[in-house]
Amino acid sequence: MSNIPETGRTSRVTIRLVGLQILVFSLLLTLGGRLWYLQIRNGDEYTAEAANNHVQQVVHPAVRGSILDARGVPLADNETRLVVSASRTELMKMPDDGKAVLTRLADVLGMKPKDVLDKVRLCDAKTPQPCWNGSPYQPIPITDEASAKQALQIREREEEFPGISAEPTAVRRYAAPAGSNAAQVLGYLSPVTDEQVKAAEHTKSPLLRSDQVGSNGLERQYDSELRGKAGVTRYEVDNLGRVIGQRESQRARPGDNVVTSIDSRVQAVAEKELDQAMRDARKQHDRNTGTNYKADSGAVVVMEAKTGRVVAMASNPTYDPNAWVGGISGKDYKQLTGKKSNYPLLNRAIQGQAAPGSIFKVVPTTAAVNAGYDFNGPYPCTSSFNIGSQVFKNFESENYGGISLGRALEVSCDTVFYHLAYEQWKKDGGNEPKKKPGDWFYRTAHQFGLGKETGIDLPNEVTGRVPDRQWKKDYWKANKDVWCKTGKKDGSYGQRIAYENCLEGMKMRAGDSVNYSIGQGDTLVTPIQMATIYAAISNGGTLHDPSVGKAIVSPDGKDIREIKPKAHGKLPMKGQTREKIDSALAGVATRGTAAWRFQGWPQSKIPMHAKTGTAEVYGKQTTSWFATYTKDYTVVMTISQGGTGSGASGPAVRKIYNALYGVDAKGGIDKKKALLPQPQAKLPKISSDGSIESQPLGKQFEAAARERRRGADS
Length: 714
Fold this sequence. Notes:
Helix content: 25-40%
Radius of gyration: 35 Å
Strand content: 15-25%
Distance between the termini: 103 Å
Number of helices: 24
Largest sheet: 7 strands, mixed
Structural class: alpha+beta
């Protein structure tokens, strides 16, 4: 038996009970305090959060505005298609997450089950396309190419396809009027990314996860205007995601229409002639390489000379922008972005950089006059020009004796510009330059707008390059380690160049200035830059920001906001100098290097001005350039690895002018055939709720239903 007194045991039990009571009281006090904090102090906040957690929204996409050509003809619009969609919410309620339903759907649509299943999975960092990037409560489109028969099968067998809908829906269409493509100008649509949603949070045009946004071209440039505003219906849902009521609904507002300066008829001609010129160039023999020209890419710009508005812009290779509608397949995406395709998504008119060759010579001509040289000369046009042991040859070793700068432009005499550039290089101090060298030839190029963007209303324009002293220093710093490592004094040509660059690549050497004077060496320009320059020579000296957009028009056509042409500067030349250059360029078309391409042209009625260019590129075939203008238009074409300017690009440019003015082979003018600007057609009608009627599709749907009924009756 225990020796502990009974009173001691009672005391201990009492102490334990008291302690337990204190503990329970403390817990109750803590719990009560927490409940007060949650329900009283922060009750409103948590109530609101709870409500929001049980509100889901369904987005009703706005009908995207159309992109129209200068005559009101749709380049990009919307058409009603039968879109088959899946409700992920309904599918997730099924034991197999809807796999059986989607497999049956794939069979009806003639698709692979895996492709259908992939489309309804949600996108995240680890999930590749195709996947759904929008709200899981939003109907997920499976295909926008369903036939009326397929849609009827789904509708009439609803018990086999729970959560599946087949409805007429407006989808993007790139119409290709007159056979024009304009893919790089128009761009395409793609699902919005999380980064884009976040970036647009506090803007006038916030994005929803279900939005399609412009990813290139005009679709991207004018995305906020074209997109409109999506409608939203908010539903109350329970913890299982089931809808228990509707909170509010906002109707969609359709997007505005963008009228462009593009004429689809001229666009079609430009595309066709560029493509044909490249095909013809590939049949010509390059005597330097012993093979045919590759003519692997090209671009052409047709511009209004007085305004800078782009009438046509073509880039080759190209693609069908309709490939992006409804989500591009992995196979098509690989074909468009792979090296073998030569990157057709690039708009080479604003992103293609190349040495300009002799079409650049209007710049050093102006520079020479501004530096104090007499336009009339005379200057020796010899067959070659020597600097020490280096020999710089004239094109095809022509020798014209003493000539003016105007005649040097007409016959494209390289040695005249070699001589002037070398003389100016020496005046600036040569290899030991003055503290403030004149650098007329480089300064003038910048004044012409080279080395920077033109300001065209298209995304991703590149700047080109003026290889002046600062660029030389920056380029040397970035590459000297590689040059010094790979260069050899007595090695191959490339190794010797690397060796020289290692030692003095930061210097403006005589050879650099001489090559630069004829648009060779490290100089890079884009077709749109050269079109802007030649348009300015035509219009009296005004450098315009090239533009494609002409007006923003509301869906009902009542509200029109014109996009007026803008100028960013003047050519750095006096009126007298411009007139002399203008006369010389007319001489190029009548008696100079381009004369054989403009035989029979009605020069007295439509004065033509031109400049040819053939740029040499180390390790590649020559680049063809052809720059031209009349009082109305400027046309610039280039073909990479295409041969000479007049040889490869010349015929195509002539045919574009023939179409513009209605000129026949004998020089006659038929104004009825001319593609000159026409009165703008009426804008397409879009109803107030943004819907697009599609009577043919409705009739097709009804006809299919009647046919199905007749089959059932029989």
